[in-house]
Amino acid sequence: MSARDLWPGLALLALIALLPFVASNTALNFLLSVLIVALAAQGWNILGGYAGQLSFGHAAFFGTGAYATAILQLRFGVNAWIGLAAGIALGALVGWAIGALSFRARLRGSYFALVTLAFAEVLRILANAADVTGGAAGLLIRLSPGVANLQFPSRAVFLWLVAATVAGVLVLTAWIARGRFGAQLVAVRENEDAARALGVDVLGVKLRAIALSGAITAAAGCLYAQNFLYLDANIAYGTWISVEVLIACVLGGAGTVLGPVLGALALHGVGEIAKIALGHIVGPVPGVDLIVFGALLVLAIAFLPRGVMGGLRRLGQGLAR
Amino acid sequence: MRTLPTTTRRALLGTAAGGTALLAAPGLLRAQPAPVKIGLLQPLTGALAQDGDLGRIGAEAAVAKINGDGGLRALGGAKIELVVADARSNPEAGVQEVEKLQGEGVVAIVGGFASPICLAASQAAARYDLPYVVDVGVADSIVSRGLTNTFRLAPGFGTVTSAAVENLIRLNDGAGKPCKTVVLVHEDGLFGSGLAKLMQTELPKHGFEVLETIAHPTPARDMNNIALRLRSLRPDLLIPSSYYGEFVLLSRTMRQQRIRPKGIYAVLNGAASNYRFVKEFPDAALGVMDCNHWHDPKNAEAIALKAQVEASGKFWAYNIPLNYSCVKLVADAVNRAGAADRAKVLQALTTSDYSGHIMPYGPTRFVNGQNAGARPVNTQVQDGDIKVIFPTEVADSRPVFPIQG
């Protein structure tokens, strides 16, 4: 991965950032959701894609970030921006804690995946029962647009903020992928024993990966909370987000810099386009986007084992030949 | 990466086509005033699709009725156009659809069904001062947030539960206090947990002993353990608050294991006042009572609507009269406002005293967005039908209690 490969991604985000000047609020809202999923997926990609530790429970980080910002604002009157920072820090902490518990117990592969799923579920059940999270009634962040409250009257500003965060993480991922830490991550993914024999501190690398991964996914959770202003346990810690980030990475190409962003865009973009297109032709068909969603996933797994990025690369090689 | 230019091109084509149609339309329909768009937000897909569909039936029936009766009088007989949006059973999609409805230029939004969807969607609508009329969502927080755009015709959680407790005591006292012990079975979400907590504090004050509170997740696939627990506890009264599938499963399991308490008294239950349950499992449903939303059984328009819905092969449920009434309420507000103008419609709703709805509430009077006259009724499944047993002035039958008595 060279810096040159980063340009398409940044150009794409710049294009998205220009959209508010032409697109409707519906389109912006849709893009916002996609970018938030993309950001969460970028977090998954560090741990699952680069370090090869497949997690089924990234909801644990997403929800922690979301609840942290919401609770700090509602219960303690903390400024939303500080809430965002605290949410990211807590996400990293939860990541580190889950990592310390499960990596020290030498859990790998499907065992690690199942344990992460269990952590997310436990957090969901706790959040559903506890008073501080509003229990099953959830938390509603008060609508009061203003830069200080991290709420903007215009969707465009929020879109720029999220797009800038995604771009920042894109650059960070590229930087990691090129550096020593990235090489260590890949070494751990490919063969832990060999990595250890070469002097890589396997546990340390994994812990740093899961903390970073948790922080990025928690940032997505914070932004989600600020965008929708409503949270309950099933939104914050629900399996939907764990599954979406996983699928976005698998579809886009796990362990590539651009994969998660492309995956999230492809996943939701195609479904939405199908809905609009079919809506124009035969009238509204409820659930058609979900059908396309499923069909796309089957096709991607059958024909693009390395995701959209792998497919593009193969196409590039084919053309060059 | 290629999807984006395609989207814009398609959107552009769509807009161009739509624009052309719009420009051409006035020439064709010069005599007809422009239709007024009302948005309907319902969970048409996902876990709540059954309820969303019922809501749509009600809203569509109201639009057909209003348009059939000559449209909006104050706007020269303008027709109502219902713009249906799918909240996909989650608040996030609900918010996205509010943006879509805003783009469509609706004058107000009706619906939401589940409290989380109502909470998030009404707040999203508040950004545009877009009137939002909640159909079912009972969470008290929906109308206590100071949002001036949000209205609820139906009663909230607090009103329903206090009426439920009051009526239960009246029922038990009237029958000579046959029930002393109670078991609460509830789903672990918003309604169930809140209700259980309230019952746990309220019932002991009135001489009931709460033996145990059993929570279950939604969806739950097996109720055998809960049934076994009920068998060993032998409560006089069971108070379940669950969604449709779970309650049907529980009552069938209880039937199979021959567990028959003296009464099943549901509150805001997904099945106890649902004709599908009554028709498909008549044995399990017999005698089940519920404190819930229901139409006014003495209202001629409600009776006609019910007959019409049943004639089309659909089951009747409270979502239908609620959405029917909410759409009529909005149409009336547009009439009062004299224009399809949001600010005026908002004002008209705030001061509305509409009595043309089919719920047993009397004329509407909104206090902080909540209809002050709204109240639940108690229903009971009797002879394969759902009858209203409380309040007495609305009731079309007398309670059968205790069941084994």
TrEMBL record, chain A:
Q: What are the record keywords, sorted?
A: Cell membrane, Membrane, Transmembrane, Transmembrane helix
Membrane-spanning ranges: 81-103, 156-177, 209-231, 243-267, 287-304
Say if the entry is tagged with keyword Chloroplast: no
Compartments, as annotated in UniProt: Cell membrane
- Topology in the lipid bilayer: Multi-pass membrane protein
Identify the InterPro entries for this entry: ABC_transp_permease, LivM-like
Keyword Iron-sulfur tagged: no
Give GO MF terms, alphabetically: branched-chain amino acid transmembrane transporter activity
- Stated name of the protein: Branched-chain amino acid ABC transporter permease
Q: Native species of this protein?
A: Roseomonas indoligenes
TrEMBL record, chain B:
| InterPro entries, sorted | BCAA_transport, Leu-bd, Leu_Ile_Val-bd, Peripla_BP_I, TAT_signal
The record's SUPFAM superfamilies line, in alphabetical order, gives: Periplasmic binding protein-like I
One Pfam family per UniProt: Peripla_BP_6
Which residue ranges does the record assign to the Leucine-binding protein domain? 35-376
GO biological processes = amino acid transport
Gene3D superfamilies registered for this protein in UniProt? 3.40.50.2300
The residue stretches assigned to a coiled coil in this entry are none
Keywords, ordered alphabetically: Amino-acid transport, Signal, Transport
The lineage's top-level taxon is Bacteria
What's the family? Answer: Belongs to the leucine-binding protein family.
Q: Could you identify this protein by its name?
A: ABC transporter substrate-binding protein
Which species is this UniProt entry from? Roseomonas indoligenes
